[in-house]
Amino acid sequence: MPKILITPALPYVNNIPHLGNIIGSVLIGDILARKYRKDPNNQVLFVCGKDEYGTQTMVKAMEENLSCYEICNKYGELHDKVYQWFNIKFDYFGRTSTS
């Protein structure tokens, strides 16, 4: 049974997501996961997460006088809602600080 791991680029969660964020990071992974899942012989794992350590996150944290962790919490919730609206389904969605 083929095992397929799909890991798109981690989206920056330093702002309200727009279509470019979706297309540039997670949409292609979601499409691939759906394609491979059509074959019942495939075991597919689609994982992604919030990037807490990128420069954009650090700059936004400084602008808002928050920690990077807090920025990820704040804007991450907005990203989660957008992914749900687009019906993008991860098997696991974590963050770079996940142990």
Topology:
Elements: E1 3-6, H1 19-37, E2 43-50, H2 55-63, H3 68-85, E3 92-95
Parallel strand pairs: 1-2, 2-3
How do you describe this structure in short?
The protein has 99 residues and is of the alpha/beta class. It contains three helices and three strands; from the N terminus they run βαβααβ.
Structure notes:
The structure is a single chain. This protein is of the alpha/beta class. The protein is built from three helices and three strands, in the order βαβααβ. Helix 1 links the parallel strand 1 (3-6) and strand 2 (43-50). The longest helix is centred in the N-terminal third of the chain and has 19 residues, at 19-37.
Give the low-confidence spans: none
What percent of the residues sit in helical stretches (DSSP H or I)?
40-55%
Cα-atom radius of gyration = 15 Å
Spatial shape: elongated
Based on DSSP secondary structure assignment, what is the total number of beta strands? 3
C-alpha termini separation? 29 Å
Averaging pLDDT over every residue, what do you get?
91
Top keywords for this entry?
elongated, alpha/beta, 99 residues
